[in-house]
Structures are given as structure tokens and as C-alpha cells.
Design brief:
By secondary structure, the protein is an alpha/beta fold. The chain is built from 12 helices and 13 strands. It has a 7-stranded mixed sheet with strand order 3-4-5-6-9-10-13, sandwiched between helices. Strands 1, 2, 7, 8, 11 and 12 form a 6-stranded antiparallel sheet that branches. About 5% of the residues have low confidence.
Amino acid sequence: MSNHLSRRCLRLSLIALVILGLCACVDEEEFGNTPRGNFEALWKILDERYCFFDYKRETYGLDWDAIHEKYRARISDRMNSSQLFEVCSDMLSELRDGHVNLSASHDLARYWSWQEDFPTNFSDTLLRRYLGTDYRIAAGLKYRVLDDNIGYVYYESFADGIGEGNLDEVLSALMLCRGLILDIRSNTGGLVTNAERLAARFIDQATHVGYIQHKTGKGHSDFSSMERQILEPSSNIRWHKPVCVLTNRQVYSAANEFVKYMHHAPHATIAGDRTGGGAGLPFSSSLPNGWTVRFSACPMYDSDGRSTEFGIEPDHAVGLLDSDFARGRDTIIEWARQWIALAANKQ
């Protein structure tokens, strides 16, 4: 079994894809291209392949069979595509999962309450004040040295690639700083490999950071045993000074995984708001009418075996204050600067 986190995730993902692929043609054969047929196909795809039924039944009482009866009553073969899409979207929202989407040519069904129902705790206006106009850009990273000799890095999306050379250049440029603020607020995810590559710069030994499973059958509880996620340290430049990771509710998916990894970095702390979650690797399938549904298929957990589907609490809860915003200050960044100053003095 490989010790490298990305290879394990890839291997399990390929296994899951094969399992899901073997089932894909069954839906098209069993259900016709009618409103009722498409509804039943959608419900069955999720019933057999979605990975969080047990967890969400325990968390908030989700009953997928009862959901089927509730929304089947709204289906009629006389309804048009827009009406069908609305019913299907409402049904999927019961899963409370930002990784669950229904795509049609006219709309995208999504569940965004994981972020929309909470304070943003982030401001583009304040970000521009701290970055200025002469900041450096290395691939997806924007960075500069603040006036108190603290490095500041903003990473907007883990979909933006970062290479080992990019990270070497950024860390070399900030090496004389007292500490580092790593701001991933409003980063809604992207590639787990980018999260792993960045986190590997903050650990010095192979570290157990979590677990992953994959579906092995059609039952809600049919999963493989938990396999350990091991994060290997980078063989390039690593950071050994204080680092404060800033989070808010829009930190999701691969960004949520990054926060999970950074909880194990010896010189790191997490500040801001609880992350948004998104702890299932997503896969896609099609309905008879050509609509595409994306859903969480492989669950991931923290190193204690707990699901992070609904987010990760920060080490220090800090919110953006209106009074600070009016003064052009970012409360969370300023808290991080104070923490780094204290932590640096202790080293």
C-alpha cells in the first residue's frame, strides 16, 4: 500500500469510478425518458452511490426513502422540464451537500446554504489594502511582506495550480519573515493534490492526517475499511516558523482537506470561522434525458475518524468586526499578526 496521499486517493478514486461505471448503464435501461423515469433514475443513483446517508441520518435525521415518497408525489408525466428540474433540485437539497449538483442546459441545481447562511468574514476591499498593488504572484499564490516583517500569502482557489518551483520561490522570498499568514478564506476547493503539495511544506515527517473509504456495494453502509491518509513531507524548502491559516465558511472541499492537514503541522494554528466542509470525493452520472448529477461518493475523515463533511472548527474563532472594517482593518489578519508576534518571541 502506497504511503503517498495523492496516489492513495487516485487509486481509490479509480476503484470507485469502475464500480460506479459498472452501474451507469443500468439506470438508462431501467428508466424511460419521462419525468417519472428521470426522477426515479435520479433517486436510485443517489440511493446506491451517495456516501453520506448513514452520517446524515445520525446528524439530522435524513430518511432517503421518506424523501422519495415526499417528492414522488410532486411528479407528473404532464410536467415540463423546468418543473421537473425544480422538483429534482428540491429533493437533492435535502442532502445538504455542496458537492451535489444537477446540471441541465438551462440551469444548475446547487446547495450553497453551507456558506450563504453564515457571515462572510472576508472582504475583497480589505484584501486589496493589505496586498497593495506591488504584491508578487507565483502561479495561484499572491504574496508580500507586511510592514511588521510578517509574510502574507493569499491562495484563492486550489483549482489554481502551484508547482514545487513556485513554492520554493515564495518561501525563499519570505524566509526572513518572523512568521507567515496563509489566507485561504473563500477558497472553495479544487485539486486535493495542490492542497497536499502546499501542506507538505509545513511538516517534517510522514504524518497520519485522516482516512478515506470507497463504496463497495449498493447499500447505504457498503464501504471498504478505512484506509489511512499519510502526508509525506516535501523534499524541498520547508517552513519552520509560526504559520497562521485563515478560514471562513467558504473554505470547502480540497480547501477543507488542507485545513485538516494543517491541524497536524507543528508550527501552525487555524484562525477565523468554521470551514464549510465538503468531505466527499465527487463523481458524476447521467439521467435518461441527458442531465448530469454530481454527488459525493468517497467519504474522507480526520485522523480521529470523524467526518469533516460539515466543516472543521478553527483553533481560534475570530470574526471580521464592522468597527474594524470601517477603519480599513481586517480583524482576522490583525489577530494573526499578533499571534505570530507572540509565537515568534517564544521560538
